[in-house]
Structures are given as structure tokens and as C-alpha cells.
């Protein structure tokens, strides 16, 4: 199977994800050994093609140029699909779809044309083609759905230890229990003031975590040097204030673009992915993209702290819109802060969310039912929400 994908549109697209969609579609259509060419372009270019090949002097959304007549056999060059990103964006707005969803549906429409169907031949064939496209889209969504997973923040274990100035409880031991109970990642925040996690904790976690170690950190030179030295599976840049009890809000990426971009570049030189903890604001998402981030973590604190249902709905909508916008711009999306056993399911149900970072609620529950059971209960909530 070969998918040749080219972006001539001048707009940033999630090309790797779209190429993956093409490969899954070929497999769903029984064309896993075939070749496909896809070009994303703009309205003027597709208008020129439409005028040249179809004698229609206007922009359209998608054109298909089959290499074979009728339904081709498996293992051939199917042809070319050309999509106008300009028209796709307009149609997405008009139809209330996400931009990425619209591109996927146009890919399906173009592919079905290459497989020998044509809605312009008859009303009956148009109906058959529409039903085939709808079935393919449902199969694609079922196969490509992100399944969010749980990452446990073990900072509170270290906070309890530091309160007595002794050696227990041990956040490293707690991390192992969390992984055995179903956590798919461990989060630990090494602060400048070392109020909870210590350097030794981070180094031991790096040696013992079997899933994924996400090191939360401020952009301080000393902490950056430690991250570059121990090489966590990813880092999440967060704002830090000495007087705060916990992280109170997202990074102002737009206002610190130069500094944050430099840290991301340093991490990328060591092949360390970077997430930015941001408020659910599309301007901050765009700034994160321009800074070179791999992930954003959407701050869910205002959603979780809402005092009534109407306010919670408003904050949820903001978080959902920011997450979808980030996903459609090619960023991977996590979420966290304040999530508990009542508020997590709604966030976990969002298609764009990949990981939920939860600490305090699980540790509070663990006092009552034990750490293993608390993690299992939260992981079950997330799994159920994603179904």
C-alpha cells in the first residue's frame, strides 16, 4: 500500500493523520495493496483543473482522476484525488463540521469515485454512493477513534512525605502501584522550590516507570538542565508561582513565545516531546503551534470549579472547542487540572483528547479505598466514557 500525499494549499494540515486515514480507507475498501495520490490545493488551482478537465469554470471541493475504468482490482494505481482546502474550510463552517472531519469526508468521496462510482450517472447510483460513503466514514471513525488514557500525578504523595521531613510515603513506589492498577502514564512536577518532588524522585522515576514519564516543569534553566539530563518520555511546560498552592492557570504562550520556543527547540534536539499547559483559548493553541509544541494540555480547572450547571456547561464548551481546534491544527491533546470522579467522564468523551492527567482526586479517594482501587475506578470511568 502506498499513499502519496502532497500539500500545496499553503495551509498547515495534519498530513500524517490524513495519510493514515487514506491507508485505513484503502484497507476498508479491500485495496490494501493499491496506490493512491492525494493533493491538497487551493481554490484557484482546483478551479483551473475543473475548467480544463470538466469545462466548469469554478472552484469545487474535490476532483478525482481514476487510472482504471470501473472498480479496479487490488494492487493497482487507483488515481489522484485533488481537494481544495479553501472550499473544504468554507463547507466545514457552513455544515457545522470540524475542518478535519470535512477533509476526511472529501477523501472518502474522492476515493469512492476512483473505485468506479459516479453520483452524476443516475439518482439511484447517487443514493448508493452516498450510503457507501456514510458506511466508510462510520468504519473510519470507529477504527480511528482516540482512546483516552489515564496518567496519574504523584506529586501529592511527595507533599505528604515532605510535610514530615521523612522518607515515606514514597512517590516512586506509589507510581508503580498506579501503573499496575491501570495508569498509562506517571506525571511528576519538579518545582524550583522543591516543595514536593525532589531531584532523586525524578531520577528514580525515570529508571522505574514502565509506561510513560511526563515531567512537569517551569522554564527555569536549572530544571531544563535536569530534564535534558534524565530524558523523560515527555515534558509539560507549566507556569510557576512561588506563592501558589498548585498551578493556577495556563501558560501565556503568546506572551512568552521566544522563551518557550527556545526551550522546545532544546528539548527537540534531545528527541523529547513537549506539551504546553494552556487555558482553553484558541489564541494560546495557535501560539503553541507556532512555538513548535507537540502537545497541548487543556487546563480544565475552570470547568471543574464551576459553581453551577450553566457555568460548567460554558466552561466545558470552551475546553471542547479548544481541544478540537488544537487537534485539527495537528497538535496532540491532553487535558488536566481539577478533574475528579464526577467531572472526568465528560472530558474523556471528547474525541480529540488523548490523555487525562489526574492527581489530587485519585489521592483523596485512595485514603478511603486504597491507591490501587482509586486508580482502577478512575481508569474505568475513562474507558466507559470513550465507548
Furnish the topology, listing elements before pairings.
Blueprint: E1 2-7, H1 15-28, E2 35-41, H2 43-54, E3 62-66, E4 77-84, H3 85-95, H4 99-114, H5 123-144, E5 149-153, H6 155-164, H7 171-180, E6 185-189, H8 199-208, E7 213-217, H9 221-230, E8 234-237, H10 257-269, E9 274-278, H11 282-291, E10 295-299, H12 301-305, H13 309-328, E11 332-336, H14 344-348, E12 353-358, H15 360-369, H16 371-386
Parallel strand pairs: 1-2, 2-4, 5-6, 5-12, 6-7, 7-8, 8-9, 9-10, 10-11, 11-12
Antiparallel strand pairs: 3-4
Helix pairs in contact: 1-4, 1-5, 3-4, 4-5, 7-8, 10-11, 11-13, 15-16
Structure notes:
By secondary structure, this protein is of the alpha/beta class. It has two domains: 2-144, Metalloproteases ("zincins"), catalytic domain (Collagenase (Catalytic Domain), 3-Layer(aba) Sandwich), CATH 3.40.390; 149-386, Aldolase class I (TIM Barrel). Helix content is 50%, strand content 17%. It has helices spanning 15-28, 43-54, 85-95, 99-114, 123-144, 155-164, 171-180, 199-208, 221-230, 257-269, 282-291, 301-305, 309-328, 344-348, 360-369, 371-386, and strands at residues 2-7, 35-41, 62-66, 77-84, 149-153, 185-189, 213-217, 234-237, 274-278, 295-299, 332-336, 353-358. Helix 4 (99-114) crosses helix 5. The longest helix has 22 residues, at 123-144. The protein is elongated, with a radius of gyration of 24 Å. The protein starts with a strand and ends with a helix. The relative contact order is 0.09. The mean pLDDT is 91.
